[in-house]
Amino acid sequence: MSEHKIIRLGHHGDGIAEGPVFAPMTLPGELVSGTVDGTALKDVRIVTPSSDRVAAPCRHFKACGGCQLQHANDDFVAQWKADVVRHALSAHDLSPDIRETITSPAQSRQRATLAVKRTKSGAMVGFHGRASDTLVEVPECQLIDPKIKASFGILKELAIIGASRKAPLAATVTVSLDGLDVSVQGGKPLDGPLRAGLAQLCDATGLTRLTWGDEVVAMRTPPRHAFGSAFVAPPAGTFLQATAHGAHALQTLVREAVGSAKRVADLFAGCGTFSLPLAERSEVHAVEGDKGMIAALDHGWRFATGLKPITHEVRDLFRRPLLPDELKRFEAVVLDPPRAGAADQVAEILKADVPVLAYVSCNPVTFARDAAQLAGAGYVLEWVQPVDQFRWSSHVELASRFVKT
Ligand SMILES: C[S@@+](CC[C@H](N)C(=O)[O-])C[C@H]1O[C@@H](n2cnc3c(N)ncnc32)[C@H](O)[C@@H]1O
């Protein structure tokens, strides 16, 4: 056993002591003891706790791998996430105004992927354990919407009907306005009896849609989500913001960033999380790589009332970013790329001198890289707003506004 002083948290939320030695569930300033095994500290005991340490709100925290930071108070986590963004930007000599983190409440995750395992006597539902493949049951999970918790019985039924004993199912459950939308990977191949059994289960339990692998096996009604005044039913398994609270915060921030722009391009538009609310005031051109998502966006727009025109395009923005000639007609561009960021698209935006950019990012490192490219071409990063939809995790998201000077 040896004692170690925790200096800082790493990207995965582990405490780091000199060495480096990684100690999970510890906080900066804490004196901890344990046995060093490679770079990991095992059997960690807290000798001197941090004043930011709290009792974990969830009784599953120690065993479950779903959350990393329940042992710290909310202010600490909010500040730590803002600091992750600050450090990523300062590595590129950028020091913008970073606002206070907006954090989604407990039990508000509208989508979760659960592991569901058939057992001798029935089935188990939960998350993978901390640093292990063991399934941990989480009946009192504090993260997910209670409607998702209420679906655990249905998920067990699905495993009993359609899982092999060898591999657990990965069941993604999404709360929609019309009920639960469940998408399952890793199940037995569909055959006649399985298809019939699943359809029957869907009917009996009131699931709005059930997708098995790539196939929708039953749909009572398309599962809708409200984006501003429009309603959209995303294709099964496609991207959706993690909480309705977070989606609303990001929509408000993007609208603030775009300001009074009359013509806006929404790049990496998904199913229209930003395009549809923006169309209440601006004409929008939505560009997205997934055909089904664009079709869902278009359907939502056609059935909404009072929205300005939304044009759209299915396009791979990594291979074929929008070019200066195409960008010149827009007064503002919204960018919300995947974790890789949008270096090539940003390079074209610079050439077009787009006046305003709203950049939403789920990766502070690629965001800072793209921000440096923009700053080098005369864009000012006016503000950055961390948005924490992944409460108690080490994941960091943000919205921001760039203006061409
Ligand atoms: C972070 S999500 C944002 C979606 C949307 N803005 C929202 O808030 O719901 C990123 C989106 O980029 C899309 N995407 C990923 N790679 C792409 C590519 N190469 N070209 C165009 N779109 C892509 C994904 O399908 C996904 O919808």
- Overall pLDDT: 96
SSE-based structural type: alpha/beta
**Residue share in helix:** 25-40%
Low-confidence stretches: none
The general outline is flat
Structural Rg: 23 Å
| Helix segment tally | 10
Describe the largest sheet. Answer: 9 strands, mixed
Bound molecules: S-adenosylmethionine
Lay out the secondary structure.
Blueprint: E1 2-9, E2 15-17, E3 21-23, E4 31-37, E5 40-48, H1 74-90, E6 97-98, E7 102-103, E8 111-118, E9 123-128, E10 135-137, H2 146-149, H3 152-162, E11 169-176, E12 179-185, H4 192-205, E13 209-212, E14 215-219, E15 225-227, E16 230-232, H5 244-258, E17 263-267, H6 275-278, E18 283-288, H7 291-302, E19 310-314, H8 324-327, E20 332-335, H9 343-352, E21 356-361, H10 364-376, E22 379-388, E23 397-404
Parallel strand pairs: 6-22, 7-22, 12-13, 17-18, 17-20, 18-19, 20-21
Antiparallel strand pairs: 1-2, 1-4, 2-3, 4-5, 8-9, 8-11, 9-10, 11-12, 13-14, 15-16, 21-23, 22-23
Helix pairs in contact: 1-10, 3-4, 9-10
This protein binds S-adenosylmethionine.
What does this structure look like?
- The protein contains 10 helices and 23 strands.
- It has 405 residues and is of the alpha/beta class.
- Helices cover 26% and strands 31% of the residues.
- Strands 6, 7, 17, 18, 19, 20, 21, 22 and 23 form a 9-stranded mixed β-sheet that branches.
- It starts with a strand and ends with a strand.
- It binds S-adenosylmethionine.
